[in-house]
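Narrative summary of target 7.
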Amino acid sequence: MVEDHIFSVPVLIFLGGAAVLAFLAGLTLHRRRGDRYARLCGLESAVMTFLGGCLAHAFAGLLLMAAKNVEDASFAVGWALFLWPGAIDSVARLWGEQWVCKPDLLLWLAAVVGALRGMYDGLWSIATWPGGGPAFILDVTWGLSGTTNGVLLQSLNAPIGQHGFDHRSGVHRYVNGVRFKSGFAVTMGSVMSNMRDRGPEHELFRHERTHVWQNRLFGPIYTLTYVGWMIVLALPGAIAGIITGTGAVAGAEQWGYYNNPWEAWAYRIGSGPRSERGPLVWSDRTVIVACLPFFAVVLAAAGWLVWRGWFRGI
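Modeled conformation, tokenized:
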């Protein structure tokens, strides 16, 4: 039973150990920076590590406890909260199997992701207190899909990237680090990568911070529709680019990325002129019209998964 594994002794021991390591890491980091409040910063790291793991673990556990069909609910949770397990098991299901989306594995994954998010947030003192509490709670519950990718991104950036010192900004800003295209920033969860010297007053920071809050407020809807839009629109965009002479790659980028409704929203908050983004970039009105049927299909599919996992058989 799923309820037998929520806050089991092994999970609590793991989170307690992670909190101790976070305290030591925070203490060391802030002492090196000459911070006279190093012990308090270490304590913040420890508390946020333990709390983040507990909240994420409890959120995933409560969802699975409420399920009528645990197998289908686990598959839905794997997609909605972590993305990668759902993607892997979408392939496994072709052979009638489910390799990763299993309650025990998902609960442990939630604990690990939540603990890492709390540790990183505490180490770099990004949370604004008390107002930052809701943002952190959203990051380790409803926004776990983006947070999972954000933790991966930050773990890759940790040895190679330079973390900006935007104290209590609510986000992580890396001056360099992982990027998909030269000159472009990448934001996953609350982590911004390759931001150069663009701090909180810059329009790029406002653009990327919009993505942070899109993930916090819309959770898996944001992550899945963002990725889904890029996949669905890449080929038509490439064809449009060939037809118009823009080029297949540029056409795929303009339709799949610039015309993505989440990007159109963020570019409204902080962006350069629309003309600089290419001739196949739509107006905001066209984006809204185009995204309505797309979102309708995605939400219908999500509703079907929710019905199969939580309501079928009632």
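The first strand starts at residue 172 and ends at 173.
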